[in-house]
């Protein structure tokens, strides 16, 4: 957290290069590469560990309630959150006269405004989040990443700290490429108590997106891909997929998911005005939830 405070001029000078480097490392990474089968067994992928560590570092640096004490070396919590001007077109370093609790990385992420940058980050999120769901004729022929939980945290923080990025995601058709892996991770982790945090962050992402009209409208697109998900076979839309996945979560035997039931039902309520139709399978599941 040395660079998350504006205590010294040298910290300000190095924060922006570190921030842009972390973004480039994460979102330019392609674990599949040229698509050669079993290439990760023949060649060592040294970038995967670098990308994973970069995700973890960026998650910590974007924490809003951590600041460096002026006179001490340990960390302390503060209720103040730095608010930057999102309309500022310049992604430059804040003035050195800023208060010591200013988080430079939050300032930088909130000032990103170009569609090219948003598209670069969104495509990176889609490529990496969909990687664990890749299916091929040759079993295990594609490399699969394991740091998807860090990616979900980053996506949630990006949407929360930069509303322009969230609106860009909602306007894009690739929002469904975010929805499907999130539902996949939720269903896959429902019985694993060690992944309860993953389920929470996935539900929070969907709760944040469901408050916008564009998200509900996009759910009417037919669901044609077949992800290896433990749900009944159906023919319908992405709204059907969401309801069936939520039914799987709520009816699971994991008692630690009970605090999330209200959030799951709230998401269904938020999207309900925009759903045009439901298939028989999802309709049955929805009625079962409301009984």
Automatic annotation (TrEMBL):
Membrane among keywords: yes
Chain ranges passing through the membrane: 165-187, 193-211
One Pfam family here: Hid1
GO cellular component: Golgi medial cisterna; Golgi trans cisterna; membrane
Segments forming a coiled coil: none
Keyword tags: Membrane, Transmembrane, Transmembrane helix
Classification via InterPro entries: Hid-1/Ecm30
Name used for this protein in its record: HID1
Organism: Brachionus calyciflorus
Taxonomic path: Eukaryota, Metazoa, Spiralia, Gnathifera, Rotifera
């Amino acid at each position: 957290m040395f660079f998350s405070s504006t205590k010294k001029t040298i910290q300000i000078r190095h924060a922006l290069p570190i921030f842009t480097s972390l973004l480039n490392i994460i979102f330019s990474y392609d674990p599949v590469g040229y698509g050669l089968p079993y290439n990760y067994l023949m060649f060592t992928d040294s970038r995967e560990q670098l990308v994973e560590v970069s995700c973890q570092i960026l998650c910590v640096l974007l924490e809003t309630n951590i600041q460096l004490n002026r006179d001490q070396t340990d960390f302390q919590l503060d209720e103040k959150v730095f608010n930057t001007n999102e309309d500022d077109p310049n992604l430059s370093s804040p003035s050195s006269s800023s208060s010591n609790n200013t988080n430079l990385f939050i300032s930088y992420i909130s000032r990103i405004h170009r569609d090219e940058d948003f598209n670069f980050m969104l495509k990176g999120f889609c490529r990496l989040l969909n990687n664990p769901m890749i299916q091929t004729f040759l079993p295990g022929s594609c490399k699969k990443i394991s740091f998807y939980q860090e990616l979900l945290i980053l996506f949630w923080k990006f949407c929360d700290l930069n509303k322009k990025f969230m609106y860009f995601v909602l306007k894009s058709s690739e929002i469904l490429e975010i929805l499907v892996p999130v539902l996949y991770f939720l269903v896959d982790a429902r019985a694993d108590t060690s992944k309860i945090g993953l389920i929470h962050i996935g539900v929070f992402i969907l709760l944040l997106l469901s408050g916008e009209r564009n998200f509900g409208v996009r759910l009417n697109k037919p669901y044609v891909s077949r992800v290896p998900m433990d749900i009944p076979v159906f023919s319908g839309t992405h709204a059907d997929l969401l309801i069936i996945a939520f039914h799987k979560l709520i009816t699971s035997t994991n008692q630690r998911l009970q605090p999330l039931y209200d959030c799951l039902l709230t998401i269904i309520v938020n999207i309900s005005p925009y759903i045009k139709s439901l298939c028989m399978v999802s309709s049955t599941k929805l009625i079962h939830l409301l009984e």
